Predict the structure.
Amino acid sequence: MPLLAHLVPRIAGAGVEPAATQALAYLLRSDATANAFVSLLAPAGLDPFPPAAIAAEQHLPDDTRPDLAVRDPDGHLRLLVENKFWAGLTDAQPLAYLEAVPMAPPSAVLFIAPHQRLTSLWPEIKRRLTGRFRLESEAATETLSWGRAGGRTLALTSWRHVLETLSEAAADRTLRQDIAQLRELTDQMNADVFLPLTEAELSDVAVPRRLANYMDLIEEIANRLVRDGLADKKGLQTGNTYHRSGRYLRLAGRFVHWLGVDLNAWRAWGRSPIWSRHYSGVHGRLSEARVLFEDAQVSEGYLWVPIRLTTGVDRARVIDDAARRVARIGERLDSAFPRKAANVSKDPETP
């Protein structure tokens, strides 16, 4: 049965979050995806084990009910998983879950949440640790935060990372399509949610000042590129919408792109508030162009490249470094797509 048919009645009956849990359990029925899922915790020091049983929303003896419980071939409980979107932690999380898994064989508690929530959820998880479950060590990568608490592994990762890992492990096309459907559901949950306002946010002028700073950088970065002969603005204008503020530039004499602050891209992919969005010159070859750049995305017929901003330095250095990063985009595209092979069509949003 396709995942979509598996999902729809559960969304209607119980809501999206329980449906996502059931869908994830459904995807882990394959040995390849189940093994890949367990291997997510290898960077945290949990040696991979063959998962023999994966149960969704199963009551444990202490009356905890994690979203997923994973056991090894000997029947030992090795991994408890809690799936989150924007709901808060319950009273049982994470302490009751840590109590439920053994020290031997090595075990773990894993939280899965939206990428946008990782930086705020991990401190909240740590804050709840008390007594013998105080954090003994801690480390993180871009996709996984973890620590040791009471001899168990405690970790947090994103839906994005989980589903990308499963997709890479999936051996057949149907399973990859199922994973893509769950990815669409989680992306929608992440994008459409209204985050409750806090009094601190409404009164903190640092937020609008920071956004204004980002937007003010764009014209200065563009002027630096033009001054140094690395880009031109001839015939091009600014391009703004309610969630986007920036301008069009031409790199290497032919790659028209939009450079600016895009709140939707920042919300969806993180990385940076400033993005370079390309169409002209790479139309029809977006997949080839994407591999040229770290963290690049392809969406809505465009190549999106984040312009990472240098932290801890003054404004002039931020502008210089950002301009160099934009210039390198033009250099790589010019090298990868020689002029005679490039499709130099006009960006449909370019005035």
Observations:
- DSSP finds twelve helices and 13 strands in the chain.
- Residues 8-14, 341-351 have pLDDT under 50 and may be disordered.
